[in-house]
Amino acid sequence: MEPDRTFATPTDHARCPCGSGGAYGECCGPLLAGRAAPTAVQLMRSRYTAFVVGDAAYLLATWHPSTRPERLDLDPELRWRSLEVVRTERGGPLDREGVVEFAARYAHGAERGVQRESSRFVRDDRWRYLDAVD
């Protein structure tokens, strides 16, 4: 399924929305195209990018089947502005689980806000988002 084109998709040479400082075509672009993320934090960054570009199919594909919703409707009026990775716990290439704490800033019309979350990730054949913890 193609991403919803009501969302803006960066060019390969543009700065990646995830805030890594890399180019989209070398950072999250390949992951959204199907390459497996080597770490939990890279998966989390690519999932943030998927929210930015409106790629609900990628979000569902990288969500663990035990907690994945049947469908995901993204609001094209919600604009994700920036991502800050606050903390990581495990989640490396040899780990089976990891936690990534982040703060994602957004705008929805005149409203501005920050979503703060500690996300749990698990790895079987590839890293997948499991759920959020307090």
Describe the structure.
18% of the residues lie in helices and 34% in strands. The chain has 134 residues and is α+β, with helices and mostly antiparallel strands. It has one domain: Roll (Nuclear Transport Factor 2, Chain: A). Strand 2 and strand 3 form a beta hairpin. The longest helix has 14 residues, at 40-53. The termini are far apart. This is YchJ-like middle NTF2-like domain-containing protein. Residues 39-132 form the YchJ-like middle NTF2-like domain. Pfam families: SEC-C, YchJ_M-like.
Helices, strands, pairings?
Blueprint: H1 29-32, H2 40-53, H3 56-61, E1 78-90, E2 97-108, E3 111-123, E4 127-133
Antiparallel strand pairs: 1-2, 2-3, 3-4
Features:
134 residues; alpha+beta; 18% helix
Distance between termini? Answer: 33 Å
* CATH overall fold name: Nuclear Transport Factor 2, Chain: A
Return Rg in Å: 14 Å
Number of domains: 1
Largest sheet descriptor? 4 strands, antiparallel
Helix content: 10-25%
Helix and strand element order: HHHEEEE
The backbone outline, from C-alpha atoms, is globular
Estimated structural class: alpha+beta
Q: What CATH first level would be assigned? A: Alpha Beta
- Percent of residues in β-strands: 25-35%
